[in-house]
């Protein structure tokens, strides 16, 4: 397609599949990851995020057509907040001037089916206020394996919808959307899926999966559409690519 697209988390899993798919369609892809990428940067740190933005501005002087942010962590540790939330918003906001140079600019960020769970609203509110100091003070560590993860994905959805209709983004033609994958077979989920009990539990949370786990390429296809010019009518949408989990949780079960 000849578009230039930034893909974060491009060294593994869904991000890798997205980068490869876009390249196979003729796009120029700039990969960002902690290692094995065009731009190696630790998105958990302020310095790493600033360096990534500076290098993107240097290598994409004529602008960029889109960014897909798959970089993320699945665990309870504090780095989950840093990479999933700040690693997304700082990069997207940092390349705003580059996106404005495109005729069909797109932003695609990563949520999760976990965004359907009830989050810790205090953490979500503090994330949206970007008050990391207060989060660290109130939550020096989290015992709950999903508390931080769920909060980041809910916060990303709210930030994404706000951006999508704000004057500086949606108002200037930048289409902003999200993808919320369900259970997908990647290095992130491998250790859990290798454990028989955990695997059965996770599959039970995805009743429509019928023992079929989503593959990275399936999510990559959705990202390819959203980051392409064809998605122009989608604004502020979170696409739940979850084999029916959202429909069931919202109470629509015709079976
Ligand atoms: N796999 C699933 O079932 C699933 C479900 C819902 C949402 N997601 C989301 O999809 C995204 C991609 O997940 P995946 O399953 O492909 O995982 P993955 O572990 O295969 O890929 C994540 C990538 O993020 C990069 N990353 C992590 N920390 C980083 C840091 N500090 N700086 C720079 N890069 C860093 C990793 O190096 C890796 O390449 C994540 O945001 C995840 O939360 C995944």
From TrEMBL:
Signal peptide: none annotated. InterPro entries: NAD(P)-bd_dom_sf, Sc_DH/Rdtase_CS, SDR_DHRS6-like, SDR_fam. It comes from the Bacteria. The keyword Oxidoreductase applies. Keywords: Oxidoreductase. One of its GO terms (molecular function) is oxidoreductase activity. Belongs to the short-chain dehydrogenases/reductases (SDR) family. This is NAD(P)-dependent dehydrogenase (Short-subunit alcohol dehydrogenase family). It comes from Rhizobium tropici.
């Amino acid at each position: 397609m000849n578009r230039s697209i930034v893909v974060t988390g491009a060294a593994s899993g869904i991000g890798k599949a997205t980068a490869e798919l876009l390249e196979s369609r003729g796009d120029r892809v700039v990969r960002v990851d902690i290692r094995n990428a065009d731009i190696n940067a630790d998105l958990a740190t302020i310095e790493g995020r600033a360096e990534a933005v500076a290098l993107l501005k240097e290598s994409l002087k004529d602008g960029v057509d889109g960014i897909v942010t798959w970089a993320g962590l699945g665990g309870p540790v504090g780095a989950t907040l840093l990479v999933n939330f700040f690693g997304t918003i700082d990069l997207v906001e940092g390349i705003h001037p580059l996106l404005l140079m495109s005729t069909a600019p797109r932003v695609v960020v990563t949520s999760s089916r976990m965004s359907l769970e009830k989050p810790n609203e205090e953490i979500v509110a503090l994330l949206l206020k970007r008050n990391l100091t207060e989060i660290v003070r109130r939550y020096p560590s989290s015992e709950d394996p999903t508390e931080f993860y769920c909060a980041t994905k809910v916060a990303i959805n709210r930030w994404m919808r706000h951006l999508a209709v704000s004057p500086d983004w949606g108002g200037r033609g930048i289409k902003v959307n999200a993808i919320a994958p369900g259970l997908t077979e990647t290095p992130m989920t491998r250790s859990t899926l290798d454990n028989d009990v955990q695997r059965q539990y996770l599959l039970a949370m995805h009743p429509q999966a019928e023992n079929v786990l989503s593959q990275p390429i399936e999510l990559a296809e959705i990202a390819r559409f959203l980051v392409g010019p064809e998605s122009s009518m989608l604004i502020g949408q979170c696409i739940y690519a979850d084999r029916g989990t959202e429909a069931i949780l919202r109470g629509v079960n015709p079976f």
